[in-house]
Amino acid sequence: MSFKDHFSGHADAYARYRPDYPSELFEYLASLTPGHALALDCATGNGQAARGLAQHFELVVASDGSVAQLRNAHSNPRVHYVANLAERPALRSGCADLVVAAQAAHWFDHERFHPEVKRVLRPQGALALWTYGLAQVAPAIDEEVERFYREVVGEYWPPERRHIEARYRDLPFPWREVQAPTFRLRLQWDLGTFMGYLGTWSAVQRYTRARGESPLPALRSRLAQVWDLPERPVTWPLHLRVGRPS
Description:
Blueprint: H1 11-17, H2 23-31, E1 38-42, H3 48-53, E2 59-64, H4 67-71, E3 79-83, E4 96-102, H5 110-120, E5 121-132, H6 139-152, H7 161-165, E6 176-178, E7 183-189, H8 191-198, H9 202-211, H10 216-224, E8 232-244
Parallel strand pairs: 1-2, 1-4, 2-3, 4-5
Antiparallel strand pairs: 5-8, 6-8, 7-8
Helix pairs in contact: 1-8
């Protein structure tokens, strides 16, 4: 199988600027399962979710189809990185307590993914998928980013972006769904770090390749007029779907 790889070309920036997830999220995920021997993180990227899971599970298998992403992953003694696809987990049947996919499930072939997750999960295991959309900073900043998102790079978003906008509610989910609490990802960033994060957007990368120039300098000039503090709180609401075997 092939996969849609929008991030290998800037894996180093992805590792530097993509935000880590709150510890409360991983505490909740650990509470879903009686066992904590093995968690599988599908499409791990640089291991943001895998490192959080490693605080609660004895072993985390973190897989990704992009070798470039894995080469930029942060090492952890409890995380074992594997180059393979989410639809083909290299695990024996019935061995995983938890399977997760962080900001990645919109890329999957769900007809292949879900049967494989059901194969590798223990009977009392759980699957958790989550995503986040645009960051919230301040009204004037958010307005500029929204305009950039829609009007400047909008046509360069892959079609799968619609699943993020739908908060994953439109994805196939053949599981007994569990009502999950709401979590927020919160960081303090300066303007340079925020721009670095925007540079990891797949639409920004595609715009730059297509037009031969980055759209970010013009946006930075606009944001600099309203980013009036050295650092600002940057918040992303996380949209989580959790399921158990039927």
